[in-house]
User: Fold ROK family protein from Nocardioides anomalus.
Amino acid sequence: MGLDIGATKTLGVRLDDDGRVLEQVREPTEPGPEGILRTAAQVVTDLGSAASIGLGIPGLVDPERGAVKHAVNLGVDGEWVPLRAELEQRLGVSVAVENDVNVATLGAVALSGIRDLVYLSIGTGLAAGLVLDGTLRRGATGAAGEIGHVPIDPSGALCQCGQRGCLETVASGRALAEAWPSGDEPPAQALFAAAAAGDVKAIAVRDRFAAGVADAVRTLCLSVDPTTIVLGGGVAHLGAPLVEAVADALRAQAAASPFLTSLDLAARIRAVPADQPVAAIGAALLGRP
Ligand SMILES: [Zn+2]
Assistant:
């Protein structure tokens, strides 16, 4: 069983032995440590009994202890919340806890069968998960893949992390929403539709956003050279138009460089399957003994 705990909703899946989704439920996420525990327990109850549970959650996760902190959107501050210990006590089943981008990366590996893959999550923020030669790379302090906080523009906007001109200030759902306010409509869809219809301003905003995502892809490829980069997160619901825009930006960036051209980065990107709960699937697989 796998749970993807998000700021507004928690998605749960039950998988068969081959990793296919048998059942899927969602519940609104209650904020705060006790709210998260209640929500998780409710989703598990909805899905019935499980041999093991894996759980993906935003924030800083200590997978050894199964604890999380700094999940700001979930009402979890700088105090460690011992999710695994609390849930194991309540549910009587073994529980594994991992960062949400990392479980989505494991899910993307399982769905694609590719064991050397970077998952670039373009959600509210921008972060990557790395599976290299089949192994999840967390880093010495869990900061591997924090690509959103690579500064690219010394005169750019101030980032929430305190630096200036981070990739996240250009290539994230938040940056896109600020650059293209769209009322009730999702900003990414509104922007790409306006650009496709020939709106000159929208084309400029879209291309700047795509160039930022391409910067992230290029940096990741030059760091760890994965066979595949999967674009995920809320903005990736755009699907093919996003992949095309980023591929165009990658080709433009490579135009003056035979070296970059030889790496053919544009051919390595794809969008995560829109109809698959990739993070919950990855969480379920993580939880398996
Ligand atoms: Zn930053």
Notes: The chain has two domains: 2-104+276-287, 115-271. The chain has a mean pLDDT of 95.
